[in-house]
Input
Amino acid sequence: MGDKTCVSFTLNGEPRSLELEPRWTLLHVLREVYNLTGTKFGCGTNDCGSCKVLIDDNPVNSCVYPAKKLEGKRVLTIEGISSDKRYMHIPQAFVNAHAVQCGFCTPGMVITALGLLLEDPDPDETKIRSYFTGNLCRCTGYVNIVEAVNLAAGRSTHG
Amino acid sequence: MDNQYISVGTREVNSDSSMKSVGAACYIDDIRLPRMLHCAILFSPHAHARIKHIDTSKAEALDGVRGVIHCFNTPRNLYNSAMRFYTDTSPSDMPKTEMIFDPVVKFVGDRVAAVAAESEDIARKALSYIEVAYEELDAVTTLEHAMQEHSPQANPAGIDGTNVCGAAVAYGSGSEQEVLLEVSQSPVRLTSKFRTSRVHHAYLEPVCHIASYTPDGHLAIWTSGQNVFCFRDVLSEALGIPQNRIRLIKTTCGGAFGGKLEVMHEPVAALLSKATGRPVKLRLNRREVFSSTRCRHEALITIQSGVHADGTLAAQHVHSALNTGAYATSGPNTAGAQSGKTFVMYRAKHMFYNGTPYYTNTPIAGAMRGYGCPQLMVSREAHLDRIARALSMDPVEFRLKNALEPYAENCMGKPMHNARLIQCIKEGAERFEWKRRREEARTGQGTKARGIGMGAAAHGAGWYPVYQDMTSVTMMMNNDGSLQLLTGIHDLGTGAKTVLAQIAKEVLTVPLDLIQVIEADTAVAPLDLGAQASRSTYIGGNCVKECAEELKRQLTKEATGLLEQEESELSVKGMHVHCTKTGRSVSFADIVDSAQKGTLGPQRQIGAFRSFCSREAVYSYSAVFADVEVDTDSGEVEVKEMLSVHNSGTVINPALAEGQVHGGVHMGLGYALSEDMMIDEQTGKVENPTFKKYRLFRSHEMPRIHVHFLEEPEESGPYGAKSIGECATDGVAGAIVNAVSHALGGADIDRIPMTPEYLKSLIRR
Output
């Protein structure tokens, strides 16, 4: 304690200023400070992708991302996606493609899908599969997750 | 399938997915109660040790610490965390070997003490301030060591000074001697020894519980566990609290696969809540999840078969040794479940199963998708391919010659119902173009060797005949005609709730968005025996169907008065009761209104309660086909394409059933090729307790997966349905082992996972 730092950043479009302890992770800040519990703790070791958020449009595992590095960054969480008309079709694609079972990996998957589609609006299956290599799912064998991304890509192409 | 149904067979969306996909579903770790404390557990660093003394004074002095518990200040009631019934009716013994805190710790990861504090950080910090004096004891860290005659005891509960857990499960079509004699007198004899590894469920949601003990002596527990009524009963026993004062609430479950079927650390959170008078949350980290929850039983399986020259199996003997880890939990039951599957696939007249679980000072094995079956299936399917090779027979032909036929009697004299194993194999071979692929695979190039293999599997639909199986359902119609469906069935993300609602809709015509399914809360839902044994659709579905039919009778009866017609003239359509003769109809809402006003008799609620009991031993079947490529330099295997053909009876929801198969294939692939909880023999520690080192298949490594269902209805199932959850994973590893063996020119594979190192050593041989 003691040596607190202050960071200013954008969270789901809202400007935020936060006094934080140096060892806090972004995941801790999201879940424990802002009660944004859509972002999940799966491993804490940068291995499973359940805690993915977008930082400046890039998917990042928030469980190992030091909160003190947030200064000036733009953070988008699953809560931000679901309330943004530009992006709502992505979670809906996961529903329609039957890509949701236990759902614990799903927010991280949706975030990753958005990260991919921002980078490449029309990814082929190989690209999708390699882009999702940091996201573990134990329920779906990734089959319908890939399908969901295809579906989301199709929709975004058609506006 | 001709569309005779309005709801059965439709691809409805998994009920909670719109909440889950936007991060709005509430898992336990997302629940925050007022004044809630956080808990951390001190786990044993020793494989086997007696706790001489614990000094918690420094931990208790730490700012923010509210309570510390351990074996010297908690009750020492024995229990079995895998108990299924309040009164255990299992034919296999379920030894009670666990305590909340045992003064003798029996594996690295066993509970020593626990702290409740204002934050998880403080609780974890406090753990390092607890001073424990241990007296180390001899430890048994391998299955082979545990099986030796004069090995130390890993757990004093071992029978007659050995490490045998419970009793051996041994029975067959005749005596063991008779069956072995039949094997030895057969013209072709073959013995295979096979080792299967210890794997973890690797559910993405770490184990998490919240306990809240209130001043009136009531305990509420939130868990993502799979068996809330059993948990209530075990907690009642372990804590000495009457069952009516314990409420177990299942929350949204972030994956379980059997790994949350047994009572885990709920009693610890409960005791700390009682000690502090505040709600307590416990969430394990991933490292702890690997070491201190449950895993699949490691197995050493020896199969001896006697075969006639024409390829007919004459006799088969299965010997299985299972590593149950430090405590009994599911050990004897797993051997029991494994034994049952021995007899329901192939036609050998003489068969015998002999299986024994052994204690070791290693993490506890428990229920896991397949429950003893994947071990047996991969061992036997590899063994069957060896026999086929020895006889120069095609593996598909060999299996077709020996698979049990529908409605046949097996070697135990039991009826096989509509068992479509043969059809699964035939149809799969055709769809996969087995012959063409096998032929093509002969012409490998360079260091890439292609192989085509298959494996088959069987799984039950419910517990019978091991236990009686039952569940209950309550359905109440609301004033507007919508429905409340209360069930103890647990939905682990599989879509069980959706399937049950679809069955209710089939009977009552009420759309899914007007059916509220309330699941697995001991204070609200009627009794159920948990999400296990692939029972939710078959047992739960049968019960919902009967309950809905009862509700329909009530609606129809009330309508006879309103429409002034005989019941025989009435039918249900679109949430109305119709009279075909007069063309008049009355809505469910009006019928409910009439019943509540007492228009035609005493005022009453339209609602039904039913119990369903299964006395049918029904099996689902699968045949799995794989096309793989083995790099003979590196030993790496690439799985290119797979087909999984299933006989699950009528498929209530094809989208959900396919999802089960996709996930089952994923789990089976890891089992075959990459997943292994490695235990250091010296220390008993899990060597790879992270997703970096414990390798699950990732998206880019998955093959193309094809799924096909043979919709042959099962007479005793709801609309003909059987099961899918476990059968989806049981047959996968066998197909991969046989495909890899084929790629390597018929190499005898004798273990999984087939790591590159293992395959390289096999290629060198």
User: Anything to note?
Assistant: Chain A has two domains: 5-77, 82-157. The two ends of chain A are 49 Å apart (CA to CA).
